[in-house]
Amino acid sequence: MKNILVTGRPGVGKTTLIKKVIKDLKLDAGGFYTEEVRKGGIRQGFEIVTLSGKRGTLASVNFKSPYRVGKYGVNLRDLEEVGGGAIEEAIEKNSFLVIDEIGKMELFSEKFISLLKKALESPVNLLGVIKLKDDHLTSEIKSRPDTVVYFLDRQNFSQVEQKVKETIR
């Protein structure tokens, strides 16, 4: 399969799994993952971190935006510039593209959706995280014939990790 996606509830280790697979298999990968931003143990938002080390704010409780998910204002500019830039660069330079994640925040951006569709059609392999609850676009992505989706929970981390690695090999 060209496109390997992991889904599951928040906090089950989807990002951890993606990072572990990239490291263990020493993949020639570009793209980005998301990271929680915490202060005093309380989540304040999310950062976009590219595999080349660039950072941007994806969402924050302190960010004013018409695009909101719960208490977080979504920063489309950093999503498109940092995350979108990492997607474009990986399509050009790498054999694997990491997108963590294809979720509600990211899908506010038409530019992100356009780059995601370009990535899905490109020769580059995609390793990503996709939201559990489907909408029209994520349902369409999950049902592509060149795509496999693994459901991750707290009990099956090792099994899903092995399946993802086997699929890549």
Describe it.
The chain has helices at residues 14-25, 76-93, 110-121, 136-142, 157-168, and strands at 3-7, 29-39, 42-50, 55-60, 68-69, 72-74, 96-102, 125-130, 147-151. It has a nine-stranded mixed beta sheet, sandwiched between helices. The protein is globular, with a radius of gyration of 15 Å. The mean pLDDT is 95. The longest helix is centred in the middle third of the chain and has 18 residues, at 76-93. A hairpin with a 2-residue loop joins strand 5 (68-69) and strand 6. It is α/β, with parallel strands linked by helices and 169 residues long. Helix 1 (14-25) packs across helix 5 (157-168) and helix 2 packs parallel to helix 3 (110-121). It contains five helices and nine strands, in the order βαβββββαβαβαβα.
Order of helices and strands: EHEEEEEHEHEHEH
Looking at CATH, the homologous superfamily is P-loop containing nucleotide triphosphate hydrolases
- As a whole number of angstroms, the C-alpha radius of gyration is 15 Å
- The fraction of residues in strands falls at 25-35%
CATH topology: Rossmann fold
Number of helices: 5
Strand order of the largest sheet: 5-6-4-3-2-7-8-1-9
The structure class reads alpha/beta
Please describe the topology of this protein.
Layout: E1 3-7, H1 14-25, E2 29-39, E3 42-50, E4 55-60, E5 68-69, E6 72-74, H2 76-93, E7 96-102, H3 110-121, E8 125-130, H4 136-142, E9 147-151, H5 157-168
Parallel strand pairs: 1-8, 1-9, 2-7, 7-8
Antiparallel strand pairs: 2-3, 3-4, 4-6, 5-6
Helix pairs in contact: 1-5, 2-3
Offer a quick outline of the entry:
This protein is an alpha/beta fold. The protein contains 5 helices and 9 strands, in the order E-H-E-E-E-E-E-H-E-H-E-H-E-H. It is 36% helix and 32% strand.
